[in-house]
Structure formats: structure tokens, C-alpha cells
Amino acid sequence: MTKPRTKAPIVPTGTVPVEPPPPAAVIADTLPADTVALLVGLPGSGRMATLCEWAAAVAHGDDWEGRPTQRRKVLYLDLSKEPRDIANMIEAMAGKETPADWLRVLPARIGLRDGLGHLLTDLIAANGYGLILVDALADIDRQSTGLDHPIYADRAAALAARLFDVTAPGGSVVLAHTCDARGAIVGAPLGDGVDVTLRLTRGGGRTFVRPVGPARSGRRRPPPPAPPRPDQTVFEVYGDLGFWGPDGQWVSSTVDPNMRVRR
């Protein structure tokens, strides 16, 4: 009796580009990765409590309402409350001390006209925050324009984009706002400034968060600058001449004190 022949495995001769898997949701079935989300709820619906619960769960990698989270560094910006009070509330919900390098609460000294400022953007980028929570969004710039003014929506959307650009890959930004009884956003909607709008409700001692639109994920981040070619040389006045070495390091060689290379 002869054994049946089996085909030899086919070994590819070249490399086939494979798309990397999408990052896991920050909070499963609730907050996708690479997303700017707008969380809306009625006054008194527990918006701040929900944000503190999210901060506690994500900073520790614990479940939230039975839903797994990805552990990420959390930055909480509040426009109306003391940072120490918020930090105490987050730790009380976590039931344990939260390491300072996983959670930071700052007073949100943000102006929509002036933007974030280099200090805050550098802080976010350098520390690799993967979840940024901004509470009391309606308190930003409301005195100068009013929530229904189109300029307010444009500035708030631009703020969300700048926050997202400096979060860690796979991270998300959550802006908290107020809605009316029908679920409509109070004030000007942020349009393309957000990828998903989440409606917050409470009932039976539980918190329910459901998307009410729009729903768009996979926000594109600005591509990193392309490295210069090894043979690329650009001259400017007042400096040195140089070239790129084989190890990718810049080698400077003075030829003329009135010339230099832009790196």
C-alpha cells in the first residue's frame, strides 16, 4: 500500500507587503483607537465621573464596565475643577494608587485663539500619552465667541486635531460636551473635528455609552519627515560644508567659513 502524495509547501520567492493589524481599541466596544471622540450627556448625567472611570481603567489596564482596555498613559485636562480633586477622584475609583508616570492631571489653561502652546504639546509628545481627556469643553472661549458661533467650532476642531497629532500611536482624544434632552449637541457641532460622537446615559446604576454619529475611525497622523538622501547637500551662507556618512551620521568639514550645509 503506497502512501498518498502530499504537495510540497510553496515557498514565496519575494517579500509580500503585509498591512499591519489595526491597533486595539482603547476601551473595547466603546472608544476606538486613533480617534477623536466627543462624549455628550445631559447636565448631571455623570460625565465627569465617566471620564474619571475611563482614566482609572486605562491608566491601570483594568476593565471598564466589563470591557477590556489597553493600558495607556492618561492626561486629564479640566477647565473648571482643581487638578488635585480630580486626581483623588480617579484614584478612589481605581481603588489603588496610580503611578504618576501613568496619569497626569493638569489645569487646562487652553485658549482656542492661542492654541496649546509649545510647552503642552512637547509635554504630551515626550511622555507618550495614549488617552487625553478634556472636560468642560464648553468653557473654552465661550466668552469671546459663544458656543453657537462658527468660529468656536472651527477653533475647537483645530484644538482636537493638535491634541491628536501629539498623542501616542493608537491613542485617542476625548472631548466632553453637553447635549440637550434630544441628544443634540448644545452649541455648534464640531463636524469633521471628531470621528465619533458618544451619548452618555445612566440607568440602573450602570453607565451606557453608545455612538450617535458620526462614526469614523483610523484618523490619519501626519507622516514623519523623510530622511535626507546620503548624497543630498544643500548650501547656505555662514556655516560649514558637510556630507552624510555611510552610517547615516552627519560629517562636517569646513571648506569656506562663509558657507554651511542645511541639515
Describe this structure in words.
The protein has 263 residues and is α/β, with parallel strands linked by helices. The strands form three sheets. Strands 3-2-4-5-1-6-7 form a seven-stranded mixed β-sheet, sandwiched between helices. Strands 8-11 form a two-stranded antiparallel ribbon. Strands 9-10 form a two-stranded antiparallel ribbon. The protein is built from four helices and eleven strands, in the order βαβαβαβαβββββββ. A hairpin with a 2-residue loop joins strand 6 (196-203) and strand 7. Helix 1 packs across helix 2 (83-94).
Structural features:
two-stranded antiparallel sheet; seven-stranded mixed beta sheet; single chain; 263 residues; disordered C terminus; 4 helices; globular; alpha/beta
What can be said about this structure in brief?
The protein has 263 residues and is α/β, with parallel strands linked by helices.
Counting DSSP E segments of at least 2 residues, the number of strands comes to 11
Strand order of the largest sheet: 3-2-4-5-1-6-7
Q: What's the helix-strand series?
A: EHEHEHEHEEEEEEE
Task: Provide the residue-averaged pLDDT.
Answer: 75
CA radius of gyration is: 24 Å
Number of helices: 4
Shape, per Cα inertia axes: globular
* Strand coverage percent: 15-25%
Unreliably modeled segments: 234-240, 255-263
Structural class: alpha/beta
Tell me the helix content.
10-25%
Largest sheet, if any?
Answer: 7 strands, mixed
Distance between the termini: 73 Å
